[in-house]
Amino acid sequence: MTDKLPEDKISPTFCIAPWSSIATATSGGYKPCCWIFDAYHDSLSEYITSDYLTDIKDTMLAGEWHHLCKRCKIEESSGITSKRKRENA
Predict the structure, then answer these.
(1) Which residue from 30, 59, 33 is spatially nearest to 46, judged by alpha carbons?
(2) Which of the residues in the chain have pLDDT under 50?
(3) Whole-angstrom Cα distance, residue 57 to residue 53?
(4) Which helix (H) or strand (E) is 58 found in, with range?
(5) Residue 10: is it exposed, middle or buried by C-beta count within 10 angstroms (0-12/13-18/19+)?
(6) What angle is formed at CA 85 by the lines to CA 45 and CA 51, rounded to 5 degrees?
(7) Interval 58-74: pLDDT, tens
(8) Which of 17, 46, 47, 83 could crosslink 42 through cysteines, CB 3.0-4.6 Å?
(9) How crowded is residue 87: how many other Cβ atoms within 10 Å of its Cβ?
């Protein structure tokens, strides 16, 4: 038995990073990916349940690109394998 979901059951904009990673910003704060410039600036415990992170996750699960994920969107539209695709693999 495999642990992978069938690709047709996964949102086309899904990225594992918001569920599995925490990057720190040089200005302080937390974010799900080092390619995101905007960071959450309250405590780490609040970040986990924040509207900031929830909005990113909900947008991805809805099959839409979150505005903070524009670098991956641009790369994928240009035919480049994005960080999102590498992380998901």
Answers:
(1) 30
(2) 1-2
(3) 6
(4) helix 51-61
(5) middle
(6) 25
(7) 999 999 999 999 999 99
(8) 46
(9) 14
